Amino acid sequence: MAVRLTWTVNHACGHTIDHDLSARRADERAGYARWLTARACTDCWRTAHAADAAATKEWLAARREQEQADAEAWADQYDMPPLAGSEKAVAWGQRCRHQLVTAAYQALVAEGDWDEARWAEAEDAARTVDRAGWWLDQRDTDPADLPELLAAVTDADRSTENPYR
Ligand SMILES: [Zn+2]
């Protein structure tokens, strides 16, 4: 007697599906069919994953919205200028600037040896850079390097060969 090719599986989701297991070796079919019974059927699996993906997307969008609101409130509080660039670059640049400047403060003043007066100068320099793209470019930088980067861009502003204008 030949080993069955089609196995009826009662899936964990409650659906009963006939599976064509002819592609499997004859001695593997029973084990595979047993393994399938512990799982949801393909349709239910897809639906569950689509729901997961949608939930993740929603969560990411909500988190980004919160970060955006935080960045804007921070810019108001610290008198940071509006950024210039495309709409998308401006929103993203605001988030990068907020993260970078607050992380730099944490590294240099809160945990480092900078005093507030020295920090105030760095913060002033940050206020002069209103190009969203510049902040995006620095997003992976070590926050402690921010004052040096700001000094470089403010120097460049004074020279005639300013790549940022
Ligand atoms: Zn199902």
List keywords for this structure.
2 domains; 6 helices; 6% strand; mainly alpha; two-stranded antiparallel ribbon; binds zinc ion; 165 residues
Question: What features would you describe in this structure?
Answer:
It is a single chain. The protein is mainly alpha-helical and 165 residues long. The chain folds into two domains: 6-40, no CATH class; 58-158, no CATH class. 61% of the residues lie in helices and 6% in strands. It has six helices and two strands. The protein has helices at 29-37, 42-77, 87-110, 116-128, 132-137, 146-158, and strands at 6-10, 16-20. It has a two-stranded antiparallel ribbon with strand order 1-2. A hairpin with a 5-residue loop joins strand 1 (6-10) and strand 2. Helix 4 (116-128) crosses helix 6 (146-158). The protein is rod-shaped. It starts with 5 loop residues before the first strand and ends in a 7-residue tail after the last helix. Zinc ion (ZN) binds next to helix 2.
